[in-house]
Every structure is written in structure tokens, then in C-alpha cells.
Amino acid sequence: MPNPSAKKISVSLNINGEMRQVEIRPIDTLLYVLRHHLSLTGAKPGCLNGDCGACSVMVNDNVYKSCIMLAIESVGSAITTVEGLKDSPIQNAFVKHFAFQCGYCTPGFIMNCQALLLKHPHPTYEVVKEWLSSNICRCTCYQEIEEAIFSVVEGRVGGTSE
Amino acid sequence: MLAGNIEYYQPSTVNEAVEQFFILKKENKLPMYYAGGTEILTLGRLNIIHPGAIIDIKAIKETLSHESYQEHFIFGASLPLTYIEEKNIFPLLTQTSMEIADHTARNKITIGGNVCGNIFYREAVLPFLLCDSTVVVAGKEGQKTHPIQDIFNKTFQFEEGQFLIQLLIEKKYLTLPFITIKKRQQWETGYPLITVACIKIENQLRFAFSGLCPFPFRSQKVETELNNTLLPKEERINHAIEQLPTPVLNDVEGSKEYRLFVLRNTLKEMIVEMEEKE
Ligand code: FES
Ligand code: FES
To answer: Which Gene3D superfamilies does this chain map to (chain B) (predicted)?
Structure first.
């Protein structure tokens, strides 16, 4: 069990394939630790209430909203943030299809799409719709985002990483 | 984010969790059990709840069971809703669950967290109410099993320090004909208005409701009226509505009159479809 009496505890987090040692309070959200302790600012604070998906990251290849997850819950798991995707097909597809305007929601959408493609390399339209309804884009780029994800499914956009 | 210096514990056994709860309580630390934690984190951020310590039960293996045991199928309280949906052992539960929150949130929301939550809806409890399920609870006196009807009255009637370990349903219920309908105020993803779930067993229909009253429920009186096939459907529905528990919700999501209007149409749709199903 982690030491509860200390105000801060030292934990190792496996982030984007690197082990990072960090001092956290047990109640710190993963979003807060990523941004404020590790300077990984790809995951964005939006609603902070689990509604908008701007803060989405992957933990063990599943997508989670990092504003409603404690950092301590991710100890021992592999965390992937948008900074951990390098030249992935879905990132390239977002660029190619202009699937953003202001870009604030984009890292969250990309992480959700990445997790979706890992689980369902050939998703139906219904599955895509169900997964993507977890994220909100204030600039309403939904059509372009769908085009981006289906261009990856159909192998029209590649990248150097999966 | 929750404020303050909250302590975090992750016990690996049921007994350790309960012992930890009472130690913390003695120290006046306001402990709370925690599984997916989505409700604790959102209500805590809004300053509505103020836990002093949280006891994360996700590492307790019994809370992660998803297996057959004799005549029953066991659902551990810490299973995320999406896990249950992907396995799809109990299609009524899958379909009810898929209407809760959104896909990413359901990776974190657990079945136990939803059925024990503070919000009105708690739709995941409806299939368990319909199927006379059994509830396994841990507490000071060890583990106890209860028929859900004995321990669920608007909410789970747990004693201090108790927590839900598992929900069991008899396998005969897993594949019965069912319908679950969720009506929203607007759009496909708008805020929920009412959810009605229905199964057919031995030619009788059973109904459970959420979003109609400030708590989910199943009512014998309502079911008796809805199954009275001597009367025309409209009359059966009128009599059933007279037997509803009170109060019917009347809020910004929908007035009482609107909710009853939607309920009437939904019940009609369901009865027509279910009475044809074998
Ligand atoms: S910031 Fe996490 S869901 Fe909106
Ligand atoms: S691109 Fe602006 S919020 Fe989505």
C-alpha cells in the first residue's frame, strides 16, 4: 500500500515508454501531474468534469479522461500521451484532412482515435460514432475528424509509428 | 481536483479494506470506498462531498470477477462498464450500460460505482432489479449475501463500512427477451429523461424505471397493472401510472407532465413489442 500519512509521495510513472519519478499528492489527478509536474501539456484541461474529452490519454492502450483519474491509479501501467505518438498515421491524417481549427480538442480526439484503432482496426461507422461521442469539438470539426479516422482505416494515410 | 490532504489506500483483500475503513473512521478521517472514482472526483471538485481518505477497492480480486458459478453469473463491483459490454454475457445489461455517460467515461465507471452512486439515474441497477439478483456485501461482520429486493430501496441500504463486492444473477435470466429504452430530452446524446427496461419471463412482463422518480425502482403494483391483459393497453397503462411511487421528477430536464407523457408512449411501444416476443 502507498504510504498514506505523507502529504506527498514519490511514485514512478511509465509515460511514453520512459520511467519518470515524481512527487505527488495521492489526490492529484493524472491530468494535473502530467501538466504541472511533468510539463506534458498535450492533454488539455477543458471541463475538468469528465465531459469534454480534451484531457484524454491512454493507459495500457485504453483511453481515459485524465481529469477523472488519479495519477496514483496509473502506477504500474503504461501511460501514453499525445507527446508519445510520433508521426503516427492518425496524427498525419488529422493534418491531411484539416481535422481541427483552434486545435484545443485535438490531442484528446487523437488519443481516443488511436485507442479505437488499436482495438478495432476496421471499425464500423457506428463504433466510430459511439467512441467519438466522448469528445467535444467547440469548432465543430466532426466531419473532418471522421474523414481522418476512416482514411487511416482504409490505409490512405500512413506514418512511421503505429 | 479534490481539495485537501486526502489519504489513499489500496487494500488487496476484502478484510483489509473493511479494517482500513474502521481504522480511518476512528481517526475521524471520513473514509470512502472508491472504485472507478468518477463520481467522487466530480462531486469532490464541486465541494459537494469531502472525503478525508479513499479506499480503492479495484485491487481486490473478488471485485473483478466475471465468471460463472454454479447456477449464477458473477459481476464484480469494480468491473468497468465497457468491459461488461465487450464481453456481452448479459445483453440487457450491455444495452443498458451503453446508454450511460460516454464510451471513454465508461472505461472508468464501474458497475458497482454506477449502482451505488448518488445520481438519480443509476440505470445499471435496472437489469439487476428485473432479474431478482443477489448482492454480495462486505462489512464488519464479514461477507453477506442478500436478495436485491431486501437491500435495495431507492438506494442500497448499506450499513456503515459496508461495500458492494459482487452482483450475481441466475443464468436463466441472461438470455430472456428484453427491451430497454432510454428517452432523452433532445438529440441522441442529450441529458437522459427516462429509462425503462423490461423482460419477459413465464409470459409475464417485468418493468424497472430510472429517471422517473428521484431513484430507480421496480414495483409489483405497477407490474400487476401492466400485465392485466383483460384490459386494453391504454387502460392498463393508466392504472399502472396511478400506482407509481412518488414524487415523479419535475425539473429542468422535464416537467412531471412531460415525463408521464413520454412514459405512457414508451410503455405502449414496449408492451406491443414484448407481448409478441416468445
Ligand atoms: S477536461 Fe477532462 S473531460 Fe473535460
Ligand atoms: S478544433 Fe477547436 S475545439 Fe476542436
So the answer is: 3.30.465.10, CO dehydrogenase flavoprotein, C-terminal domain, Uridine Diphospho-n-acetylenolpyruvylglucosamine Reductase, domain 2
Q: Which residues of chain A does B8 touch, with a Cβ-Cβ cutoff of 8 Å? A: 2, 4, 26-27, 70, 72
**In this prediction, what percent of chain B has a pLDDT beyond 90?**
90
Q: Which domains can be identified in chain A, with CATH numbers?
A: 4-81 (3.10.20.30), 84-153 (1.10.150.120)
The separation between the first and the last C-alpha atoms of chain B, rounded to the nearest angstrom, is 50
Query: Residue B22 is inside which H or E element, if any?
Result: helix B14-26
CA distance linking residue A148 with residue B66, whole number of Å: 36
Q: Would you say the pTM of this structure is higher than 0.80?
A: yes
Q: What's the pLDDT band for B188 if we cut at 50, 70, 90?
A: low
Domains of chain B: residue spans and CATH: 7-56 (3.30.43), 61-173 (3.30.465.10), 176-275 (3.30.390.50)
Contact residues, chain B to chain A, C-beta under 8 Å: 1-2, 4-11, 37-38, 41-42, 45, 53-54, 56, 58, 98, 101-105, 107-108, 188-189
List, for residues B61-104, the tens digit of each pLDDT value: 999 999 999 999 999 999 999 999 999 999 999 999 999 999 99
Say what the ipTM of the complex is. Answer: 0.94
Distance CA A115, CA A50 (A): 17
What confidence tens digit (pLDDT) does each residue in B128-147 have? 999 999 999 999 999 999 99
Task: Report the mean per-residue pLDDT for chain B.
Answer: 94
| Helix or strand (DSSP H, E) at B201 | strand B192-201
Question: Closest approach of chain A CAs to the CA of B18, in angstroms?
Answer: 15
Which of A4, A70, A112 has its CB closest to that of B104?
A: A112
Cβ neighbours of residue B185 under 8 Å, at least 6 residues apart?
A: B191, B192, B193, B253, B254
Burial class of residue A77 (count of CB atoms within 10 Å of its CB; 0-12, 13-18, 19+):
middle
Return the pLDDT at A6. Answer: 43
Taking the CA atoms of residue B167, residue B191, residue B183 and residue B95 in that order, the dihedral angle to the nearest 10 degrees is -30
pLDDT score at B189: 62
SS3 B140: coil
- In DSSP notation, A6-48 reads SSSEEEEEEETTEEEEEEE-TT-BHHHIIIIIS----S--SSS
